[in-house]
Design a protein that fits this description.
With about 400 residues, this protein is of the alpha+beta class. Helix content is about 45%, strand content about 20%. The protein has helices at about 5-10, 25-30, 55-60, 70-75, 85-100, 125, 130-145, 155-165, 180-185, 200-205, 215, 220-240, 270-290, 325-335, 360-370, 375-395; strands at about 15-20, 40-45, 50-55, 80-85, 110, 115-120, 150-155, 170-175, 255-265, 295-305, 310-320, 345-355. It is globular. The model is unreliable at about 1-10, about 360-375 and about 400-405 (pLDDT under 50). Bound molecules: thymidine-5'-triphosphate and magnesium ion. Magnesium ion binds near residues 19, 20, 23 and 114.
Length: about 400
């Protein structure tokens, strides 16, 4: 083999994707043994508006699933136990699980509270093979935490994530390594399981009769471009063949924070839209302060009944994190649009996040110190107090008064 051939050899990685089973529900059953083995729903109560966050596998037998209206869940299984979300507790357990994962490799990339990628390529020398690592990792999570996880093993992130989902709960799935075998592995899986294919794209593909990944593999580049645009077509062709070169990234910086709400029916009452926008801005503000950063840019997103979508943004002269200013910016952006049509979705987000020491030009910082406390200090105190109460009692413990024009 010549040196140039060695360089061209693809580096074969071994990636694990770990995803906890029925995460919030499993923690509730752990903390309340009397609920174990029962249909258990975490989310809004069945007699209120709101949705299911997740549910136990026993509840899934009745057709209940994440994001379903709780009212529907209550009808499907009237004797299910409904319990509210306890985010702080789930975050605490999540941190302990991530610590267990780091016992196998420092290359751990958490994706959410209940899932992470691990690049175990280097750890293979110690453990022998990836299946041994996966079994031991599942064992440690089970014995130390009393919870089960599902694991996918594959040569890249995309395939590992597809695999962890295949034999839930308590699953362990190994993806083959050669391209023909990978193509055959992906072929029967629904396209909606793929990264980047959400409900809307899934529905559009279904209209074209495309339901499984094998059908995507067979499409020519012209058809792919028509369906996914020029930029998306190549990515989609790669993913359908199981090619993905994204590395496991241990410390990624949060670039933006956002949240959005879809109304159960298109909303024509703009006062309700404003109220929802206010709540979204508050929620984003809480997460922004938790991240320890300040935002330079705020953005709103509006989607109308016909799915057309607009985004509008504004920049702040000084980076900030106060609820009051975020809410003011959200509402100002909204008022500017003079919306007359019913709204399907409203969203709010902040971006251009900076550390506090980069937020204020040096001279102004000095000026602030000289001028003492201003109204900004008062707002900051209120925000901090609100965060503390929410930290202890959950997000719904404090709601700001209804927004009024004054
Ligand atoms: P998931 O991993 O999607 O779901 P899960 O862990 O409950 O069940 P499984 O993986 O076994 O299928 O999401 C992890 C947690 O994120 C879930 O426990 C609750 C929360 N979540 C929501 O709050 N809303 C949602 O729509 C989804 C999908 C998840
Ligand atoms: Mg999960």
């Amino acid at each position: 083999m010549t040196p140039s051939q060695i360089v061209q050899m693809p580096l074969l990685l071994t990636i694990l994707h770990v995803d906890m089973d029925a995460f919030y529900a499993a923690i509730e059953a752990l903390d309340h043994p009397e609920w174990r083995g029962l249909p258990l729903v975490v989310g809004s109560p069945p007699d209120q508006r709101g949705v299911v966050s997740t549910c136990s596998y026993e509840a899934r037998r009745y057709g209940i699933h994440s994001a379903m209206p709780s009212r529907t869940a209550g009808k499907l299984c009237p004797h299910a136990v409904f319990v509210p979300v306890r985010m702080e507790r789930y975050a605490e357990i999540s941190a302990q699980i991530m610590t267990i994962l780091e016992e196998f490799t420092p290359l751990v990339e958490p994706l959410s509270l209940d899932e992470a990628f691990l690049d175990v390529s280097g750890a293979l020398r110690i453990w022998g093979d990836a299946v041994t690592i996966a079994r031991e990792l599942k064992r440690r999570i089970r014995t130390r935490m009393g919870l089960t996880a599902s694991v996918g093993i594959a040569p890249n992130k995309f395939l590992a994530k597809m695999a962890s989902d295949m034999h839930k709960p308590d699953g362990l799935t190994v993806v083959p390594v050669t391209e023909p075998e990978i193509m055959a592995f992906l072929s029967p899986l629904p396209v909606t399981k793929m990264w980047g294919i959400g409900k809307v794209t899934g529905a559009r593909l279904a209209k074209e009769g495309i339901r499984v990944i094998g059908q995507l593999q067979a499409l020519d580049s012209g058809t792919l471009e028509r369906l996914f645009g020029k930029a998306g077509a190549a990515d989609m062709a790669d993913l359908a063949r199981g090619r993905d070169s994204r590395p496991v990234v241990t410390h990624w910086e949060e670039k933006s924070i956002s949240n959005e709400h879809t109304f159960s029916e298109d909303e024509a009452d703009m006062e309700r839209v404003r109220q929802r926008l206010l709540e979204l801005a508050e929620e984003v503000g809480g997460r922004l302060r938790k991240s320890g950063k300040l935002a330079r840019t705020a953005q709103i997103k509006l989607r109308f009944g016909d799915f057309s979508t607009i985004t509008r943004q504004m920049s702040f002269p000084e980076a900030l994190n106060s609820d009051r200013k975020l809410i003011t910016s959200a509402l100002a952006l909204f008022e500017r649009e003079r919306v007359k049509r019913a709204i399907r979705l409203v969203g709010f987000g902040v971006s251009n996040l900076v550390a506090p020491d980069q937020a204020v030009p040096a001279q102004r910082e000095l000026f602030k110190e000289l001028s003492g406390r201003g109204p900004d200090d008062r707002n900051k105190k209120i925000d901090q107090a609100v965060d503390r109460v929410r930290h202890s009692f959950g997000n719904d413990a404090i709601k700001r008064g209804k927004w009024k024009k004054d």
